[in-house]
Amino acid sequence: MQPTGWAGVYREGRDLYTVNARPWERVYGETLRTAEGREFRQWDPFRSKLAAFLARGAPEPGPWAGARSVLYLGGAHGTTVSHLSDLLPDALLFVVEKSPTSFAPLLALARRRTNIFPILGDAQLPERYSAEVGAVDLVYQDVAQRAQATIFAENVRVALAPGGRALLMLKVRSVSQRRPADVIVREARRVLERVPLSIDYETALSPFAREHVALTGRR
Ligand SMILES: C[S@@+](CC[C@H](N)C(=O)[O-])C[C@H]1O[C@@H](n2cnc3c(N)ncnc32)[C@H](O)[C@@H]1O
């Protein structure tokens, strides 16, 4: 198992791993490996867009490096959240999820991992959770909504500390079925730049997540 330049991420061959904060426990059926007295969880880029972002060559050390608090929008069952929980054992991870069906497994995950604070809420209404969340070092969003860029921009405005990092997983076809992808991405960048957020990296996530583009920026 080799360390990578991404903070807390390991590699064996082409496979990525994080150190399991809850040894013996799987979150989504992932492979567990023991090496040098530690247990590692395989991080599947076809299941997690953050792993896809790394597999596509994201800049090191990764936007979560050094974060003490994170606002994660669209937690679903907690697949990616669980790896961030491994990567940032001492951070506070506030995770917003709208669907009560997805929230139930997320809540169960948070009971086992004390750095996860799940919020049943709507990312379109950040004023409902902003007092609880405060100012965070990283805003991460993965919600398949038409107004993804606007939702992200509003959360960055409300919750991202100055100098903080932001990572948007933009699902292009949720914005429009017909308009060309490059136009949709350009429009999203304009919305983010108005926050203002300075965009420093952009990559498509194919073949791991089709029709998705990751954008990172700094406030
Ligand atoms: C693609 S899934 C997220 C997968 C997750 N990020 C992961 O990698 O493990 C998108 C999630 O966003 C949630 N969602 C959609 N719109 C939302 C909103 N306005 N506020 C909060 N969650 C939302 C959906 O219920 C769904 O669970």
Distance between the termini: 35 Å
Evaluate the radius of gyration: 16 Å
Uncertain spans, ≥5 residues at pLDDT below 50? none
Listed once per kind, the bound small molecules are: S-adenosylmethionine
Q: What would the CATH topology be?
A: Rossmann fold
The run of helices and strands is EEEEEHEHEHEHEHEHHEE
Question: What sort of overall outline do the alpha carbons produce when their principal axes are compared?
Answer: globular
Helix proportion? 25-40%
Query: Main beta sheet, described?
Result: 7 strands, mixed
Main structural class:
alpha/beta
Number of helices: 7
Question: What report would you give on this structure?
Answer:
This protein is α/β, with parallel strands linked by helices and 219 residues long. The protein has 7 helices and 12 strands. Strands 8-7-6-9-10-12-11 form a 7-stranded mixed beta sheet, with helices on both faces. Strands 1-2-3-5-4 form a 5-stranded antiparallel beta sheet. It is globular, with a radius of gyration of 16 Å. S-adenosylmethionine binds at residues 48-49, 73-74, 76, 79-80, 96-99, 102, 122-124, 142-145.
Task: Jot down its keywords.
219 residues; alpha/beta; Rossmann fold; seven-stranded mixed β-sheet; five-stranded antiparallel β-sheet; 12 strands; 32% strand; globular; binds S-adenosylmethionine
Note the topology:
Layout: E1 2-3, E2 9-12, E3 15-19, E4 32-35, E5 38-43, H1 49-55, E6 69-73, H2 79-87, E7 92-97, H3 100-112, E8 116-120, H4 130-133, E9 136-141, H5 148-159, E10 160-171, H6 172-175, H7 181-193, E11 198-204, E12 212-218
Parallel strand pairs: 6-7, 6-9, 7-8, 9-10
Antiparallel strand pairs: 1-2, 2-3, 3-5, 4-5, 10-12, 11-12
Helix pairs in contact: 5-7
Bound molecules: S-adenosylmethionine.
S-adenosylmethionine (SAM) is lined by residues 48-49, 73-74, 76, 79-80, 96-99, 102, 122-124, 142-145.
